[in-house]
Structure formats: structure tokens, C-alpha cells
């Protein structure tokens, strides 16, 4: 502290509340103004410079402390966030393992056949006059297939028609006389019998004449033609083969062991080996009640043409018979419940007592309907598995089960 010979001096300090910095000011009371100007004023500027330098250094120290405090707060906040994130319990959905009767699928080779195969034949004999179709043609029901030379049958018809006309005329005359009681009852009955006989004879001649034309009994395809024009064909000899492929019949042979497993819940499917199409359902028509020499039972199934496209009669198919064994259980879970770790399928099994999960390695089977997959090994019927939220979980994790929304409390407002 410098003394300038003032009568009185006073030193006071002011503390700032905002920045906590100290400022010092000097107030001097002096009597001699000339002394102040000559001696005190030159030292005043030096004093102020010293004070300003002191204030700046204190401000820098204060700023440094603030920076240190901010860094400490940031790191402590990150630690709190990490601790808070570690405490988050994952939410999952669970479901009991589905238990049903075990299904066993049997595969047998089958033959796809047309629903109807008919040999077209004339009901009268004679030389073939014309054939209106060729092999592979599609014919409609009622379409003309072929004709026989109608010469002899036309003559037979003409004779029968002439006799018919004669007898009818005679019978009409007898009826008139009978009304006048000019003929006996015996003659009248003979006339009626003669009319009936000649009518049947004319019908027979007419039918034989009409039978010289071969008509398609149903719509289908001509599979084979056995005669040529001009050949003599006898009654009942097949001129052509007509098949109906609007629907198909599948035939296969089934052993007695599989027959014993079939019941009302058994489902039947057919799959084409050539077209690589998905299996389609078929309806069981019937099966033979007696086994053949190979101890096999012949099964017949009906298959609609719309079910299996681009197929032809005569191809080989695979018949799938799905039997349910009521004595054996089949376990299944939704496909979403299965995940792979270390190239092994696993599921999370939920412990209802501890609310924790454990990873169980399982052996999966075939994909089932409604998005389920068969579990052959690794689970028990009483197990509960995680079906949603299976990712980012670890063994023995504590989880929270999301309860299903009640149908009467939509939106969870109640």
C-alpha cells in the first residue's frame, strides 16, 4: 500500500453477486489539489492497471471452475442414463405350447384317370358308311360320331310302315262296325291286338334305322378309333373310345397298416410330380373292402379339373393321406417364436414364477397350418414360450408379459 501523504484515505471493496468477482476501488479525500495533480494522479493509472489485471485473472479462474463443474455434471448425467437404461425391463408376448393329436402323413404313388371312359358302339351291324371325328377331337353331347349304311334298315322300316298303315286302316273299320254292333267281341279284340303288334314292329324298325347313327352320349374327347370307313362292324363292337376329363379319378393302393389309421378326420391330398404344384384336396369316393394278392386295398378319389391345372389323364401323381393319431401328441408353436443362435433353432421359455426366460434348443418338424411349426424335441406340453419380442433377449433375463386386450375393453380405457 502506497502512502501519498493524504490526510485521510479509505479503501473499500464491492462484491458482485452475479459473477462473484471482487472489485476494489480507492477513494481519497485530500486537501491539497496541487499535491493530487503532481504526485497522486501519476500513480492512479498504475494502480488501476494492477486492479484490472487482478480482476481478469480472477475471472479466468472462475470460468475454468465453471467448465470443470459442467464436465462433471455431463459425466454424472451419462452415468445416470446408463444406470436408468440398465433398469428397463423388456416387454414380450407369451403363449402356451399348442398340443394336438399327432398327424402322420403317408405318401403313395397314384394314377390319374378320367372320370368316364366309354367305348362307343353301334346297336346294329353293317358296313361303316362315315366317321365324322378323328382321334383327339372334342365332341359335344348329342354330336354325330359315325354312321352305318342304312339301306337294309330303311327297307325294313318301309315294310313295317306299310304293314302298319294297312293294319291301322283295318282296325279303324272294325272299330266303326263294333260301335254299330256289326262284329263280335272276338273280332274286335283281334283287331286291337293286331294294331298293337304292328305298332311295336314299326317302332323296332324305326329304332334300328335310327341306330345306324352313332351319337355321343356326353361331352368329351375321342381317345381312340378302332374302325375305318367301309369296314363291317358287328353289334356291340367299339368303334371309338370317348373319355370325360371334366373331372378325374385318382387310384392308389394302400396297405392294411394305414387303413387301420384312417377315420373321419383323415384328409386326402394329391400332388403332381411333373408340374410341381402345391397339394390339392381330393374327396374319397370309395375303397375296395377286400385286399388284392399283394395285401393292398384300392382307393379311389375324385379330383376336380379346376383344382389341378394342366394335367392329363394317365399321369402319375402322389397321394398324401394325413392321419391323426389320437394316442400321440404333437407340439407346435408359432413360427415367430423360433430363432436361430449358433445355427441352432431355439425358443425362449417363460418362467411364470420368476418372470424370467430361458433359451431352449428345439428340434423342429414340418410347417403346419395357421403359421405354426411342429416341435419334435425340446419342449413340454405345459411350457409357455415367447412369441413376440424374441430379439435382443438374453438367457435368464427378467421380462414383462404384455397382457392381451380384453374384447370388452378395447383401447384399455377401463
What report would you give on this structure?
By secondary structure, the chain is α+β, with helices and mostly antiparallel strands. The chain is built from four helices and 23 strands. It has helices spanning 33-86, 151-179, 185-210, 256-259; strands at residues 8-15, 22-29, 91-96, 98-121, 126-131, 138-139, 144-148, 213-215, 220-225, 232-233, 238-255, 267-272, 280-281, 283-287, 296-304, 316-334, 339-341, 344-351, 356-361, 363-367, 372-377, 384-388, 400-401. Strands 4, 6, 9, 11, 12, 13, 14, 15, 16, 20 and 21 form an eleven-stranded antiparallel beta sheet that branches.
Report low-confidence residues grouped into runs of 5 or more.
Answer: 1-40
Silhouette: elongated
Q: What is the CATH level 1 assignment of the largest domain?
A: Mainly Beta
> Into how many domains do the coordinates divide?
4
Q: Could you tell me the radius of gyration in angstroms?
A: 55 Å
Name given to the CATH homologous superfamily of the largest domain: RNA polymerase II/Efflux pump adaptor protein, barrel-sandwich hybrid domain
Mean pLDDT: 80
State the share of residues found in helices, binned by percent. 25-40%
Count every helix, treating DSSP H or I runs of 4 or more residues as helices.
4
Name the CATH architecture of the largest domain: Beta Barrel
How would a textbook summarize the main sheet?
A: 11 strands, antiparallel
Compressed to H and E, one letter per element, the order equals EEHEEEEEHHEEEEHEEEEEEEEEEEE
**Span between N and C termini?**
81 Å
Q: How many strands appear in the DSSP assignment?
A: 23
Q: Report the sheet-strand fraction.
A: 35-45%
What structural class do the secondary elements suggest? Answer: alpha+beta
Amino acid at each position: 500500500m502506497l502512502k501519498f501523504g493524504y490526510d485521510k484515505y479509505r479503501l473499500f471493496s464491492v462484491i458482485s453477486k452475479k459473477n462473484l468477482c471482487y472489485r476494489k476501488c480507492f477513494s481519497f479525500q485530500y486537501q491539497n489539489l496541487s499535491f493530487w495533480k503532481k504526485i497522486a494522479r501519476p500513480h492512479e493509472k498504475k494502480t488501476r492497471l494492477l486492479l484490472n489485471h487482478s480482476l481478469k485473472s480472477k475471472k479466468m479462474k472462475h470460468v475454468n471452475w465453471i467448465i470443470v463443474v459442467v464436465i462433471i455434471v455431463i459425466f454424472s448425467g451419462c452415468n445416470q442414463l446408463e444406470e436408468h437404461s440398465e433398469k428397463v425391463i423388456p416387454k414380450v408376448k407369451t403363449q402356451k405350447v399348442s398340443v394336438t393329436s399327432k398327424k402322420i402323413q403317408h405318401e403313395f404313388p397314384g394314377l390319374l384317370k378320367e372320370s368316364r371312359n366309354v367305348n362307343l358302339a353301334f346297336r346294329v351291324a353293317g358296313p361303316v358308311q362315315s366317321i365324322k371325328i378323328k382321334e383327339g377331337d372334342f365332341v359335344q353331347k348329342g354330336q354325330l360320331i359315325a354312321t352305318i349304311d342304312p339301306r337294309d334298315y330303311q327297307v325294313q322300316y318301309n315294310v313295317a310302315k306299310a304293314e302298319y298303315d294297312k293294319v291301322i286302316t283295318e282296325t279303324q273299320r272294325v272299330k266303326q262296325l263294333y260301335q254299330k254292333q256289326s262284329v263280335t267281341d272276338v273280332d274286335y279284340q283281334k283287331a286291337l291286338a293286331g294294331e298293337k303288334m304292328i305298332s311295336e314292329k314299326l317302332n323296332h324298325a324305326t329304332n334300328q334305322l335310327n341306330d345306324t347313327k352313332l351319337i355321343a352320349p356326353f361331352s368329351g374327347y375321342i381317345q381312340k378309333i378302332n374302325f375305318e370307313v367301309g369296314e363291317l362292324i358287328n353289334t356291340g363292337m367299339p368303334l371309338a373310345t370317348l373319355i370325360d376329363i371334366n373331372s378325374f379319378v385318382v387310384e392308389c393302393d394302400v396297405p392294411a397298416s394305414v387303413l387301420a389309421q384312417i377315420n373321419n378326420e383323415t384328409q386326402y391330398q394329391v400332388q403332381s410330380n411333373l408340374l410341381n404344384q402345391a397339394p390339392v384336396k381330393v374327396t374319397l369316393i370309395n375303397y375296395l373292402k377286400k385286399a388284392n394278392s399283394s395285401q393292398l386295398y384300392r382307393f379311389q378319389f375324385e379330383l376336380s379339373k379346376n383344382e389341378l391345372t394342366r394335367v392329363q389323364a394317365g399321369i402319375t401323381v402322389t397321394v398324401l393321406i394325413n392321419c391323426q393319431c389320437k394316442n400321440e401328441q404333437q407340439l407346435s408353436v408359432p413360427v415367430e417364436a423360433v430363432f436361430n443362435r449358433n445355427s441352432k433353432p431355439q425358443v425362449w421359455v417363460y418362467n411364470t414364477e420368476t418372470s424370467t426366460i430361458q433359451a431352449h434348443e428345439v428340434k423342429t418338424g414340418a410347417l403346419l397350418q395357421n403359421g405354426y411349426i411342429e416341435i419334435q424335441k425340446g419342449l413340454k406340453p405345459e411350457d409357455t414360450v415367447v412369441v413376440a419380442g424374441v430379439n435382443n433377449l438374453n438367457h435368464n433375463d427378467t421380462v414383462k408379459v404384455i397382457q392381451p386386450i380384453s374384447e370388452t375393453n378395447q383401447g384399455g380405457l377401463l
